[in-house]
Amino acid sequence: MKPWLVMQDLFQVSFLSIVVVLFEGLNSIIDVGGGTGTVAKAIANAFPKLSCISFDLPHVVNGLVGSKNLSYIGGDMFKAIPKADAILVKWILHDWNDDECIKILKRCKEAIPSKENGGKLIIIDMVVKNSEGGDDESLKTQLFFDMLMMVMLTGRERNEKDWAKLFLDAGFSDYKITQILGLRSLIEVYP
Fold first, then answer.
1. Between the CA of residue 62 and those of 35, 66, 90, 170, what are the distances in Å?
2. 63 vs 36, 60, 71, 116, 175, CA distance in Å?
3. Which residue out of 42, 47, 81, 94 is catalytically annotated?
4. How far apart are CA 33 and CA 173, in angstroms?
5. Which letter does DSSP use for residue 126 in this model?
6. Coil, strand or helix at 132
7. Along the 191 residues of the chain, how does pLDDT read in single tens digits?
8. What residue ranges do the domains of the chain occupy?
9. Architecture (CATH level 2) of domain 3-190
10. Burial 14-50 (b: 16+ CB within 10 A, else e)
11. How far, CA to CA in Å, does 155 sit from each of 92, 97, 120, 145?
């Protein structure tokens, strides 16, 4: 087995053990930028009553076969996202600059119900820590990823202040950040 597949499997196990409470009360979730559905499949298998959709560009999902509670929809996250109780965005926003992130976040907000009706956006991404009181190696790694995103794409890694500004600019009212595995964080964002 390839090492990156092992890491992906470890991430899925850890992710699922942490987010059981996160999915309480949800009937549907869409994994935006979900590709061939690796995470959506894991969620669908762990939560058989939850309707899961992997949403990605049409050429990515065309021909993929779902299951009882897993389906695939092709589309453009900059134009519209199908409606669901929750939207999952995993390692997507760091690929994009702030203006593009705000567009994506606004489409996510349009696709979910109000906070009072259980709507939420679930983001799995890096939250760069402050240099004060933090682990120097973790900070160096986070800054390396930040440079990598800037060089390879138009995106970047963000600290909590950066994330908060994006959420506010996209019209969200509140958020909660939980570090989940290594450098990754789980960010719950509410309309």
1. 11, 11, 21, 30
2. 10, 9, 11, 37, 36
3. 94
4. 24
5. E
6. coil
7. 444 444 455 455 555 566 677 888 899 999 999 999 999 999 999 899 999 999 999 999 999 999 999 999 999 999 999 999 999 999 899 889 999 999 999 999 999 999 999 999 999 998 877 655 555 655 555 554 444 545 455 667 788 999 999 999 999 999 999 887 667 789 999 99
8. 3-190
9. 3-Layer(aba) Sandwich (3.40)
10. ebbeebeebbeebebbbbbbbbebbbbbbbbebbeeb
11. 10, 4, 23, 10
- Total Cβ atoms within 10 A of residue 161: 10
- What type of residue is 99? D
Q: 94 catalytic, yes or no?
A: yes
Q: What pLDDT is recorded for position 146? A: 46
Beta carbons of 74 and 36 less than 8 angstroms apart: no
Q: Which sign does the torsion angle of CA 173, 124, 145, 101 carry? A: negative
Name residue, tokens 């597949």. 5
- The Cα–Cα gap between 171 and 105 comes to 9
111-140 exposure pattern, b = at least 16 Cβ within 10 A, e = fewer: bbeeeeeebbbbbbbbbbbeeeeeeeeebe
Question: Hey, which bits of the chain come out as E strands?
Answer: 28-32, 51-56, 70-74, 86-90, 120-128, 158-159, 174-181, 184-190
